Amino acid sequence: MTKQQLKLLFYAAILLIGFVTNAQTNTVTGTVTDGEYPLPDVNISVKGTTNGVISDFDGLYTIKNLTSGDVLVFSYVGYITQEIAYTNQETVNVVMKEDAEALDEVVIVGYGTSSKREATSAVATIKGKEVVNTIASNPTTALQGKLSGIQIEAPGGQPGGSPNVFVRGINSLSNANPLYIVDGLFVDNMDYVNPKDIDDISVLKDAAAAAIYGSRAANGVVLIKTNHGRKNQALKVDFNARVGVDSPSKKLDFINGEQYTNYLNQRFINDGSANSVTWNGVSTDWQEESLQSGIVEDYGLSIYGGGEVSSYFGSVNYFNQDGILVGSGFKRLNARFNSEHQFNKLKITHSLGITEGQLQSNNWYGFDAVTAPTIALFNPNYEGGFDGPSLPIHGPGGLNQYGLASLEDNKETTRTLFTSLKLDYDITDNLSAAVNFGLDYRHRKNYQFTPTFEMTDPNNPIDAVRNLNVVNDLTNYTQEDVNLLFEPTINYKKTFNDLHKVDVVLGYTRFLENQTSNGLYGEDTPSNNTRVASALGTLIQPLGEDNKAALLSYFGRFNYGYDSKYLFSATVRRDASSRFNKDNRVGYFPAFSGAWNISSEDFFESETVNFLKLRVSYGELGSYPDAFYPTQSVFLANQSNTSFGGTLAPGLAQTRLADPDLVWETTKTFDIGVDLAMFNNALKFTADYYTKNVDDALVPISVPSTAGVSLPVIRNAGTLVNNGFEFDLSYKKSDGDFKYNVSTNFSFNLKNEAKDIPATILGPEIDEDLRIVNRTQANSPVGAFYGWTVEDKVNPATGDFVRVDTSGDGIVDENDIGIIGDPTPDFTYGLNFTGEYKNFDIALNFNGVQGNEIYNVGRYYNILWQDGGKLTEVLNSWTPTNTDTNIPRATIADEQGNRAPSSFFVEDGSFFRLKNIELGYKFPNEVLGTDWVKDLRVSLNLQNVFVITSYSGYDPDVASTNGGRANINSGVPGVRAAVNPLLGRGLDARSYPNARTISLGVTASF
Q1: Distance CA 134, CA 158 (A)
Q2: Quick check: 377 and 352 in contact, CB under 8 A?
Q3: Alpha-carbon torsion 194, 195, 200, 205, what sign?
Q4: Helix, strand or coil for residue 465?
Q5: What whole-number distance in Å separates Cα of residue 464 and Cα of residue 399?
Q6: d(CA 238, CA 231)
Q7: Residues of 884-921 as b/e, b for ≥16 C-beta within 10 angstroms?
């Protein structure tokens, strides 16, 4: 071989080596989506080799060691497998096509994702786009009727109000709220999350799903993932605007001024009094004056997109809702910026949300009945300009609630900052590590100023406590909450021999809570125009606390799947909370679950049934008390001052007893469920039966007044039993230009009661006579109504209620007081329909509640209370000439106790509501005639369209209220203690009337 031939051979070898080396290091990246959303866990492999990867949560993948001519295979359960030839391109983006209306969807679970096919626990999911067609100051209310196992009690039409949320019934007597996690960060609620920022919501309902979050997860876990943009997508701008009008959905029938005067005189006659009043010619319709139409506005702008390495999402939103009640309203401003960056093996995910909300409340509408119609709207002779009651004209008692709400200056301003930073690093193809840092910051300022006023004759006052304010008063209070999260995790995921799939997660959580507050309540500024704390003449009460708590946890989860047929999961978590004393701080909470994909078996052959899976799980979850220091007694200074030798000496008083031996409340949950898909996966069905047994329940036990304290003692002194059945059913069909999806869900509460409760737990007081309706007793429903059972007709001879001998001992006495109602529904349900025809779309959302009772406190005040306006029902009150009636005689003295809690005030709270209907039209691109407008849609939306119910109050959707008299004796004006919604459930004490909303909307993309 010549020298020249050797050179050519050498150069050829170098080129060949270079080609081979280059071929071995060729890399392809891309994104796998379903056309709208990314698909995680898609298998991407090189055909005929073992070279393969899976896509991450955002559908991203990177596969190496490719040579030209290789075939990339994209496979995913429920989607058609695709094969794409590799021809040295750097990017391959794939849109997967559903296989017969794909069965599986990816769901967010604790510290990872899963497909519904491989899930072994009870998880409910909803896309963010399904909650944006409801105008709501709180996005939680948009979930009503959408998911099984979740009951949401809305606070009427109150702007900015927080609903009660129950996941699978009542699972604790101290705190029923689920745990909310926004982008990996623990938060108290989702009140200030912009619904348009939400990508996905997952609700973990059983212990197997929630156990990895340990404490606070006993009431369920709500996982919210916000939008982070899409990689390899050009910049896109979305604009949305919606403007509407709120109006009262219902009004009650009240008597006029002349009828009220006649009613008062009849009361005097019935009581044997010589007093009488003469109608003053005034007939004010206070309901008409107080309830009004209000504007609701919702404007938003978002930008999102991404390149090869990074994606981003930013948004701003402004929401404003004028209350339909005078003196109420809510404004909210949201801003968000999220981003995600992939640098080879390192992924950085960042979330930042900032909000400011301003809430103005009407604290007086319905307080102790309504204002008497013979009181005029204004009275220039009284300071403040509002009229009020006087004994010779208006009879005993009464308030001008409209005047009180108009004069009171109150505002609650809340500023929040939620931010999280997560770092993910791929150590190997199968092993990854992550660390999540989170900050939840809230600043709340409560301001309330009540000027001096007269709303009664100062020389002959009626209810001088409410109707006269001779010295103005001011409350200025701020509270800051700073919660810090540090959470490293490690994850191993691998499939062996295409049969054995293993997924292991280990982690540590350090969650620190810091709460500080300060403020004051005082009186006597120089004038009503001077409304600052520095001008107060008298300091009544300083306010402030400094609270800290820590939660340290270790957790692990092991998932195993064999051939996608047999699935198993085990979780254990060790929690240590500073809320307990040192010896009792640690709790261990395990959970196990398994599933059998029956339809994957060789013996299963069916053209009708496409998928059938059986699930079973058992787990234990822990809860700690709401209080920061529940095991420590509380002593306050200046509470029992005394005098020695004429000199004031400060005293120290114990205001709360404590049990130092508190331990973790433990919830033991069993769940068995089935998932089914039929008719080419068009029909999907999920059903679950569950039981929950709560041991060592944290119970507030009342102590005798002789102990010198007023607050109950928290103890491990009870058990709860809770079981139920729920199912979801959906059907999806596409027929040419017409596509529709109809779904329904039912949640049956078979049993939800307290078992071994050592003492009766009392609910809130409903009137100034300190009457209590709700009680929780052993072997009885939680928060049931207790009172007399009365006949439907009054005694024709006396006009008083006829009490029933329920004990059957032939004597009507205190032994006949028993349960007269249960606020827990037998079942809740929802019905949802979406349809598209060409460019038109429609969405209808129905929800309902069945089998619960409501104690109508409003009816109590507006029929039998000693003062205030009255419903037209009193025109049928007993008189010597009207004896055939169920309305007792009008009386001030009430010597026979007709105002005592009784079945007369208990009503069926069942209802069926068309909650929302939206009609939309999307303009075709050819009509728009421009390239810079991508999409344009207009819509008409109606909310609270109708409700079918026998309930006589404003609305049967009653959330326990913190208003009225429930918390009037706690705290100071403007800073009242929150009422435990579990213990006063079902009380319609002063429910904010619901609104019917009609709005027009437009959305556009650029």
Answers
A1: 15
A2: no
A3: positive
A4: helix
A5: 10
A6: 17
A7: ebebbbbbbebebebbbbbbbbbbbbbbbbbbbbbebe
Region of residue 993 (phi > 0: left; psi between -120 and 50: alpha; otherwise: beta): beta
Output the CA–CA distances (angstroms, integers) from residue 654 to 542, 632, 651, in the order listed.
18, 11, 10
Rounded to an integer, the average pLDDT of 114-141 is 80
CA torsion 630-633-639-641 (nearest 10°) is -170
Q: How many CB atoms lie within 10 A of CB 546?
A: 10
Residues in CB range of 370: below 8 A, 6 or more apart: 254, 286, 287, 401, 861, 862, 868, 869
Long-range contacts of 19-27 (CB under 8 A, 24+ apart): 23/66, 23/67, 23/68, 24/65, 24/67, 25/64, 25/65, 26/64, 26/65, 26/66, 26/67, 26/68, 26/88, 27/62, 27/63, 27/64, 27/66, 27/90
Q: Is 69 exposed, middle or buried (0-12, 13-18, 19+ CB in 10 A)?
A: exposed
Percent of the chain with pLDDT over 90: 54
User: Coil, strand, or helix at residue 284?
Assistant: coil
Q: What is the 3-state secondary structure (H, E, C) of 52-80?
A: EEECCCCCEEEEEEECCCCEEEEECCCEC
Tokens standing for residue 902: 């009784």
- Residue whose token pair is 């948004």: 315
Give the tokens for residue 114: 């899963």
Amino acid type, 506: L
Q: Are 824 and 785 in contact (CB under 8 A)?
A: no
Is residue 557 a contact partner of residue 521, using CB atoms and an 8 Å limit?
Answer: no
Q: Which residue type occupies 796?
A: P
**pLDDT at residue number 11:** 44
Measured distance CA(1003)–CA(1006) in Å, rounded:
10
Q: Which of 956, 966, 941, 967 is nearest to 993 (CA)?
A: 956
> How many angstroms separate the CA atoms of 64 and 51, rounded?
8
The terminus-to-terminus CA distance of the chain in angstroms comes to: 69
CA distance 798 to 166: 45
- What average pLDDT does the chain have? 87
With a CB cutoff of 8 Å and minimum separation 6, the contacts of 564 are 77, 117, 118, 501, 597, 600
The answer to whether the CB of 998 falls within 8 A of the CB of 918 is no
Give the 3-state secondary structure of residue 779: coil
Which H helix or E strand runs over 114? strand 112-115
Distance CA 588, CA 577 (A): 12
Q: Which residue has the tokens 């005097």?
A: 268
- The C-alpha atoms of residue 242 and residue 195 are separated, in whole angstroms, by 14
What local confidence, expressed as pLDDT, does residue 21 receive?
A: 39
pLDDT of residue 797: 94
Q: Could you tell me the two tokens for 338?
A: 């999220």
- Which amino acid, residue 436? N
Give residue-wise pLDDT tens across range 323-370: 999 999 999 999 999 999 999 999 999 999 999 999 999 989 888 889
List beta partners, residue 507.
489, 555
C-alpha 227: how far from its chain's center?
A: 20
Q: Average pLDDT of 845-867?
A: 93
Say which amino acid occupies 465.
Answer: V
Q: What distance in Å separates the CA atoms of residue 190 and residue 355, rounded to the nearest whole number? A: 12
Tokens describing residue 51: 């070279």
- Enumerate residues 6+ apart whose C-beta is below 8 A from 746: 148, 726, 727, 827, 828, 829
pLDDT at 101 over 50: no
List Cβ neighbours of 633 (8 Å cut-off, separation of 6 or more).
654, 656, 657, 658
Please report the beta strands in 736-837, taking only residues with DSSP state E, as ranges in sequence order: 738-754, 761-762, 774-776, 780-781, 784-787, 818-821, 827-837
